[in-house]
Amino acid sequence: MTLAELQRDFRVWLTHASPEAARRLDPRAGMGMTVYQNNYRAQLVGVLEASYPQLHAWLGSSLFLEAAIRHIDSRPPHGWTLDAYGADFEATLSHMLPDNPDVHELAWIEWSLSESFVAPDATMLASDRLAEIDWDIARLQLAPSLRQRSVTTNASDLWSALQQQTEVPESEMLATPGGVVTWRQGYTCQLKPIDAIEHEALLSLRDDPRFSALCDALVARLGEEAGIARAGELLASWISAGIVTDVD
Amino acid sequence: MFTPPPTFAGFGLGLRKEHYRDFLETDVPVDFVEVISENFMVDGGQPRHILRQVRERHPVALHGVSMSIGSADGLDHAYLRRLRALVDEIQPLFVSDHLSWSRVAGFNSHDLLPLPYTREALDLVCRHIDIAQEALGRSMLFENPSSYVAFADADMTEWEFLAAMSRRTGCGLLLDVNNVYVSSRNHGLDAQAFLRGLPAERVRQIHLAGHTEVTDLLIDTHDQPVCDDVWSLYAQAMSLLGPVASMIERDDAIPPLAELLDELAIARCISERAHDLREAA
Ligand SMILES: [Fe+2]
């Protein structure tokens, strides 16, 4: 048996528990192959639990384990680091629990926070630089740790309550859909629910980072006075929160 | 041609999250710390920040678990670039990984799977070590893994494989004494022959850890104190080896730091006794 054949058989044993593959690798059929199989699965369950502690608490151990097993059976790991294994767990949950947007959104929040945690570093924009900026041509730079998505449930309230171990509210649909952002300020991860206008405004910056374009879009939506006022408010809050990290 | 990195005689611990505070706020009496490289091969954030601070206080050894040096389909070059960036920043004492494999055809088991000790595997591993050392610009250490199966078509013993690998590539060895014990028990091998078969002058670092026994097999769990049998094997190893860096590896059921420092004191004591005996002889 060549090394390549041996490794292919080992993979088939780990992912499909094929008894033929195990016999080819260990004709004496000792317990060793079972140890590898157990280690493989237990480690993947463990990393999903570690990546999604609040989701784990929210679903309860048995439902979480069912989801983890489905994930392991349908999506064997391929990334360079074990820490990346939970990246598409939300997709497995969407299949398994299609009518629970709170669960999908909770999973997204938890994963995005972990991505924000190790995203590239960025410095805060110094306030003394603001006076010298020509806002007509200024382009806003977003924190590399910023992640955002639209939401339909109060998943961010659920996450915060679970995380702080306070009383967890009922999960419910929002009166109007909004957004949620995660990012890192210094070394601290942040989570914030945002309204639909802020969500769209941040999204639009990905295509056109000019502050003037943001103002135009908000004026078109809210009218001259309210639009300009909102643009100013958003900019101030993004700078003080470290969501906008530079202006050039 | 690379040669094993310079020797470093000292006693260290694996740096684990549970002890970050101790290492940042107190003077922990260790000569070095070892970290899992992959935990810090990230773009930014707190992990890198903590490692930089710890590095200001202690020499750091980078210990990887994902190089997969024995993969038949080759090395992951993006992984090597990430590791190189970390090496350049941290200037580690040693850079190590395992004599094992994890990846095949896009699948990553994230486990340290055993290699057959064949000439084919030796050629492949040596080619890969050459590439990795070239990419990192320095020599590495490779560790003997714990294994739960031994393949029938081996051409040599594990220690013969390690010795040949080190001679051909210039890499150093990381001797995990617990892994020697675990694999020897699991496969009915002679642990002393294992130690005597290693090229002592190429061993740079030692791991000491605990294991668990499950239905006739020993499993390398790193969740227990070092057992007496492993301590006596360590004593024998220290009577054979030159200056090395010894450390306790604990990855699960992590106790307060003081308990690990107590275990490390045992290692110091055993090592001193072995040294005295060697001097006397
Ligand atoms: Fe080890």
Task: Write up this protein.
- The complex is a heterodimer of chains A (248) and B (281).
- With 248 residues, chain A is α+β, with helices and mostly antiparallel strands.
- Chain A folds into 2 domains: 1-99, no CATH class; 122-248, no CATH class.
- Helices cover 56% and strands 14% of the residues of chain A.
- In chain A, β3 (173-185) and β4 form a beta hairpin.
- In chain A, α4 crosses α5, α5 packs across α6 and α6 runs antiparallel to α7.
- The longest helix of chain A is centred in the N-terminal third of the chain and has 20 residues, at 32-51.
- The model of chain A has no long low-confidence stretch (mean pLDDT 96).
- Chain B has 281 residues and is α/β, with parallel strands linked by helices.
- Chain B has a single domain (11-280), classed as TIM Barrel (Alpha-Beta Barrel).
- In chain B, strands 1-2-3-4-7-8-9-12 form an 8-stranded parallel β-barrel.
- Chain B is globular, with a radius of gyration of 18 Å.
- The two termini of chain B are 35 Å apart.
- The structure holds fe (ii) ion (FE2).
Q: Which regions of chain A are unreliable across 5 or more consecutive residues at pLDDT < 50?
A: none
Question: How far do the termini of chain A sit from each other?
Answer: 61 Å
Overall form of chain B: globular
Could you please say which CATH topology of chain B applies here?
TIM Barrel
Q: Count of DSSP helices of chain B?
A: 10
- The run of helices and strands of chain A is HHHHHHHEEHEEHHHE
* Structural class by secondary-structure content of chain B: alpha/beta
InterPro entries (chain A): DUF2063
Pfam families (chain A): DUF2063
Domain Putative DNA-binding (chain A): 5-90
Protein name (chain A): Putative DNA-binding domain-containing protein
Write a short abstract of this structure.
With 248 residues, chain A is of the alpha+beta class. Helix content of chain A is 56%, strand content 14%. Chain A is built from eleven helices and five strands.
